[in-house]
Amino acid sequence: MKRLWIMLATLPLLAGCNAVSDTKAAEQGVDALHQAFSSGQFATVYDGSAPEMKNSISRDAFVSTFGGVYSRTGAYKSGKTTGWKVNYGTGGNIVALNRDAQFQNARGTEEFVFRVQGGKAVLAGYHVKTDLRVE
Known about the structure:
Blueprint: H1 2-15, H2 19-38, H3 42-47, H4 51-56, H5 59-73, E1 76-89, E2 92-103, E3 107-117, E4 120-130
Antiparallel strand pairs: 1-2, 2-3, 3-4
């Protein structure tokens, strides 16, 4: 009987956890981010990002860093998700996507970290590695 009460008590907590819908929201976030990056809207992306992003890098550094990366790689052309992880915690739902990417001038791998709230993915972290050489 005690077990039944514990299961019933945790049902409302699990109702907000849906890996499929959170991952889908994150994939939509990737599409929106690539469109914004390819059109040079780095400041707009930063302004709409989650507190984790803003606490890890300044607006100027974000714009400078990713503006420089995308000026060399060129616009995003295509990609696919190669792995994902969903983490549910008291601070919210976090989805991390690992992706292979093809840019206009380079291939690369990307890691996106999104905070998903109310079906909307907000960028909390982004890392990109490309096959471009720094000279």
